[in-house]
Design a protein that fits this description.
The protein is an alpha+beta fold. It is built from 5 helices and 8 strands. The strands form 2 sheets. The chain has a 6-stranded antiparallel beta sheet with strand order 5-4-3-6-7-8. A two-stranded antiparallel ribbon has the order 1-2. The longest helix is centred in the middle third of the chain and has 18 residues.
Length: 231
């Protein structure tokens, strides 16, 4: 089973709920000789495009899945994390968390981990935000640049710079007491700086949403203009 992958036709390779459950079950099965245990999983993708001097300068992306293991021994608790999902690496991480817990001082405010809970689903994941690949991002950046150049033509050759980033993530939490919860979310942000060629006028604006369709790159210039003395 593939636990981590790259962007596909369906979006970034985030862990599904079933995959996350299988992973947390694997880790919890490795935890022995402790009083309590919790596993947190974060599976994430991000893509970004930076532009300056009215042209794209860099584009990058990242996919990663990390596992954090917290164990409780008596009134001592400690955690360890890894992004290597092979059994050997997960076992080492469990052992490290147990070793650190034994070395930790007692926590007088320690609370037990949660058992099964009723979790209300929230709609925080939008597919088109998760599909914001380099080609789509470059098109959005070019629309912002072209809009700024057209709107500021009377002032001369407008300098524009900015940053576009999109994120998608899946998180899961499980405990030895029977809790399991899973959640997916997305977000995208675009920031734009515009400046007149003589340097006497400048503006900046940013906008973001879970749904990329609610962010209009072409109007980012208008917001930057309204925050400046360019008009």
């Amino acid at each position: 089973m593939t636990l981590q992958g790259s962007t596909t036709a369906d979006g970034p390779g985030l862990l599904t709920e079933q995959q996350a459950k299988q992973l947390t079950d694997r880790v919890l099965a490795m935890v022995t000789d402790v009083d309590d245990a919790r596993v947190n999983v974060v599976s994430e993708w991000s893509g970004n495009t930076r532009f300056a001097d009215s042209s794209i300068s860099t584009s990058g992306g990242m996919t990663n899945t990390s596992v954090s293991i917290s164990v409780t021994i008596g009134r001592k608790r400690a955690s360890a994390s890894t992004n290597v999902l092979e059994d050997a690496a997960l076992k080492r991480t469990v052992e490290l968390a147990s070793t650190l817990a034994k070395l930790s001082p007692d926590d007088p405010e320690l609370m037990p981990e949660l058992g099964p809970q009723t979790v209300r689903a929230t709609n925080a994941y939008v597919q088109r935000t998760a599909m914001l690949d380099p080609e789509i991002r470059s098109g959005a950046v070019n629309r912002a640049i072209e809009s700024a150049s057209t709107a500021g033509r009377s002032a001369g050759s407008i300098f524009t710079a900015g940053y576009l980033e999109a994120n998608a993530r899946a998180t899961a939490v499980a405990t030895r007491r029977g809790l399991f919860a899973y959640h997916r979310s997305t977000d995208a942000d675009l920031s734009v700086t515009a400046r007149t060629p003589d340097g006497t006028g400048s503006g900046w604006a940013t906008g973001g949403a879970r749904d990329w369709g609610q962010v209009d790159p072409a109007t980012s210039w208008q917001e930057a203009q309204s925050n400046s003395d360019l008009s």
